[in-house]
Amino acid sequence: xxxxxxxxxxxxxHWTRLQQQYDRLVHSLPEGLVExxxxxxxxxxxxxxxxxxxxxxxxxxxxxxxxxTEACEQLFLSFEAVPERQSYRVRRGHQxx
Length: 97
Hints:
This protein is of the alpha+beta class. Helix content is 29%, strand content 31%. It has a four-stranded antiparallel sheet with strand order 2-3-1-4. The longest helix is centred in the N-terminal third of the chain and has 11 residues. It starts with a strand and ends in an 8-residue tail after the last strand.
């Protein structure tokens, strides 16, 4: 599994629209994307992140090569937030079923 984290600071007056546009954006997910979440920091509410879980790094790279990941960056940019992306390889995981 491979995880990407896209971070940006969004002004409070844009929070509702950010969530609405995120919902529209993820209506159709690309192949290889397992889960995605829009999360808000509880201690710094203007800090938002899109966490995306991919089947593997190759799936992410394939979607990125097609420039489909830019939509999330544009989402933050449309609210005057500067997005910063980080990527992670999952080394261990546990899931309750």
